[in-house]
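Morning, I've got a small favour to ask if you have a moment. The fold is given in discrete form, as structure tokens running alongside the sequence. I'd be grateful if you could look everything over and explain what you see. No rush at all, and the record is pasted right below.
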Amino acid sequence: MSQPCSRLETFPIPAIARSRHAVQRITLITGPASSGKSEWAEHLAAASQRAVTYVATARTNPDDAEWQLKIARHAARRPSHWRTLEVPVALPAVLQAADATDCLLVDSLGTWVANGLENDAAVWEAAIASLIDSLESTAAAVIFVAEETGWGVVPAYPLGRQFRDRLGQLVRRLAASADTVQLVTGGYVLDLSALGMPLPPP
């Protein structure tokens, strides 16, 4: 009597699903708040077989207990041998300094945008250009985590609308340079690069 097949043997994992677990050179992971996007990014980084550096863009704030608790929860989830860098602004320099044995997990683009929100349009454009240039020259694998803020109500105040628009524009421009773009929502990972069709360049 033959042995029953396992579920994976009976229903082979599609190539698209297998490819989600392989770290590309540039990976962009986006999704709504508390969707699991950071956890998925950490999973990919751990599977990369590279020296992982967690690039934290958030600034610590001892006066905000809730924010500090969130940072602590993220830190507790990461392997102890991962290196952590606090980089609120100078992302391009960190990317350019990395080598081919590194995997950089940048979490998150939303806080990076927030840290430079008071910069005028010209300074902001220069920052984006520098970040894109650093992606073209870095030898490391890079995983970006980005928030989706444009699916909710329109912010009632100008600075909130500026944050939403700048983050949305940054995610779109990085997606054009990324090898894979993935959406985490509802407990699932969707490979947008495989399932979707990119918009024509503006």
Notes: Residues 1-19 have pLDDT under 50 and may be disordered. The chain has nine helices and seven strands. The beta strands are 26-31, 51-56, 83-86, 102-107, 141-147, 180-185, 188-191. The first strand starts at residue 26 and ends at 31.
